[in-house]
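User: I'm curious whether this sequence folds into something compact or stays loose and floppy. Could you predict its structure so I can see for myself?
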Amino acid sequence: MQKKIDLRKTGSLKWLLAVLLVIGFFFLWPTNFNALPKAPSDPPLISSLKIDAPLELCAERVPLEIQEVRERLEKELLLTLWDRPQVILWLKRSRRYLPYIEEMLKKNGMPVDLKYIALAESALRPHAGSPKGAMGFWQFMQNTGRQYGLAIDSRIDERRNIFASTQAAIRYFKNLYKQFGSWTLVAAAFNMGEDGLADEIREQGIKDYYLLYLPIETQRYVLRIISIKLIFSDPKRYGFHLSDEDYYPPLEFDRIQVNCLRDTHLRIIAQAAKTHFKEIKDLNPEIRGYSLSAGKHTILIPKGAAQGFEARYQALLHDESADQKERIYVVQDADTLSSIADRFGVPLSSLITWNRLNPTIAIRPGDKLIIYRTIQEPVERDEDEGKGASPVND
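Assistant: Here's the prediction. I'll summarize afterward.
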């Protein structure tokens, strides 16, 4: 009589064998692990917190003798150092943008330490945005940006332009300094708004950032800027050993003025600059969409491309005018973007781009749409012309 196999015992045996194999791997072959490469050791975090020398921000002393201030700074420094990949990116981008910020600050007689605000705000990313609507290198809100001279609309957003936005930030800093008389308070006001800071100063009877009770974000903000300054002042001390080749290269460009008689596709600009569409967008992050509106625009193109640009640009415009014909179509009842695109044999995406439409918003009867199309139809001829002649392309 055959014995029945107990599957539960068989499963337990397999599990036991697996455990023994794992134990054996760890204890019988330890040299395997010793041979693995080890990650380079960073300076101990506790040693990074030892700040003995006097510390300043914008030539204003940081009162480290106040225990609560020291604790706040240590917290921000630890949190910043913990995110080492982010710090590496800060350092690598610094030579691309900070020289321009430093130059503009010096020309305006402003403390160079203000440059660290841009790092704290955007990590030097032109397209950095916040859920509240702040945008660009200095994270301007729309109203504040416009107040300080930035063009912000559906076609251009100069908050993303390093030069225009930095000039706006400098104008803002000057006004804040006139109001508060302290660069540390300027930084705090930049974060929380001048009206809110003025209210807190009035309520608390204190005009010292380090002694004010402010929103938690603002209490951390200035100390975070100081921690960034500490790291940038001596990266190697904090374990960031970058060679010159590790840094991203500085921006190199020619600045030109382009006169657009009508909406001009950036593809035309790129071709005239002997480059591609993406490089024009990357050099000019403030340009939204695919074209420049009618009027004069100052833009950046690759270095060396300015020579001969105007002649190439005019030739390309002439060729485009010869190849394309523009017409205005008035939207009728029951029309949709898809049906209009099909009717004229143009891509739906092009129809949306030409008219800068939001695909989620329905068109309405009476709306006017620009439509371009290549003309390949024979033109009408007088009956006197020779019969059988080849069609003439317009």
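Summary: The beta strands are 56-57, 60-61, 253-260, 264-265, 291-292, 295-302, 324-330, 368-374. The first strand starts at residue 56 and ends at 57.
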